[in-house]
Design goal:
This protein has 3 helices and 4 strands; from the N terminus they run H-E-E-E-E-H-H. By secondary structure, it is an alpha+beta fold. It has one domain (3-67): Roll (Nuclear Transport Factor 2, Chain: A). The chain has a 4-stranded antiparallel sheet with strand order 1-2-3-4.
């Protein structure tokens, strides 16, 4: 991943609840959307690309359903 790609990532939304941090990210370089999840209680973290046939906010609110 290039430095240009890293600086082109923008946070569109985020939420934190009970140690769970969820972020909706947009890569300006590629136009792709991602959801990043960090569970501070369990020490788990993952990210996933928002499928083109899904609404980004739906994936943002239900990331574990899409990670399965």
């Amino acid at each position: 991943m290039t430095a240009e790609m890293l600086t082109s990532v923008r946070e569109l939304d985020s939420r934190v609840n009970d140690g769970l941090c969820v972020r909706l990210l947009w890569c300006q370089h590629s136009g792709r959307l991602f959801v990043a999840v960090n569970d501070h209680k369990r020490g788990d973290a993952f990210s996933l690309e928002v499928p083109k046939d899904q609404r980004p906010m739906h994936v943002f609110h239900h990331p574990y359903a899409f990670a399965a």
